[in-house]
Amino acid sequence: LDQENRLREAVHRGELRLHLQPVVALPDGQVSGAEALVRWQDPQRGLQQPGSFIPLAEETGMIIEIDRWILLEACRTIRAWQEESPATAPAWVSVNLSAIHLDLPDLTDHVAYALATTGLSPHCLVLELTETVMMRDLAVTSARLEELRELGVKIAIDDFGTGYSSLGYLRDIPVDVLKIDRSFINGLVGNSRQQELVSAIMQLGHTLGLRVVAEGVEDADQLTLLTVMGCKFAQGYHLGRPQPPAELRAGLTVAE
Ligand code: G
Ligand code: G
Ligand code: MN
Ligand code: NA
Questions:
Q1: Residue 31 carries which DSSP code?
Q2: Structural domains in the chain?
Q3: Boundaries of each EAL domain copy (predicted)?
């Protein structure tokens, strides 16, 4: 079987897995939310990272099915935690959507279906789109995102700062969350120019009333520095790897 058929079969055989990476609030370090990330449990090659199959999934359109499965699974999982242990459950979950979804007229219906069928509150769902979607037809993108926001879900710009797009879209496009790309966090310590840049991005976001998340926090020094800089949300290996939901859940404790 070629790779495309293997991936298609994987989806139908139930070999996809939902992993969750915690997003913490600063300065207290409490888990605030989680990002849903897909994995493929390949019986032949073991657990596959998305980098090895997402590009093919995007080329073939299979990404639509994959993203929709992850969306349902993420909503179901977080809703169940919120019911069973409301004191420790993440308040929200963010799900990645490939740009191709914006061309599908039934996107909003599908998101509404996921919320209705799982019972998750729309305010607990964040949809992550990369900045490159803003290089598409802004009128179409804006209309789709407005439809989604009318459901009550939030929109995040993922990999913020890397999309080579104009900042002008922030004027026209309804967004709620900026996720500062990890390339800005990597090398932050000891680089004052980079610190000024990250501070400016955080200020821009906060001034616009957006939630700003620093991605790719890999050590304690970065975390301390970001906290001093006024960063309110962070995500990265230092704070928690993407992991099976049961593992994340076992590590969650009540705030002191
Ligand atoms: O886990 P890893 O760093 O290999 O992820 C690589 C890329 O795959 C990241 O850009 C991430 O956003 C993307 N990705 C992970 N899970 C999903 C998913 O469920 N849907 C989509 N569209 N992209 C995903
Ligand atoms: O593009 P997106 O932001 O969705 O990518 C998320 C991917 O980044 C995940 O697949 C995850 O494996 C990876 N990731 C998460 N935290 C870190 C980190 O601290 N360092 C690095 N290098 N990658 C990370
Ligand atoms: Mn993401
Ligand atoms: Na990112």
A1: E
A2: 3-251 (3.20.20.450)
A3: 1-256
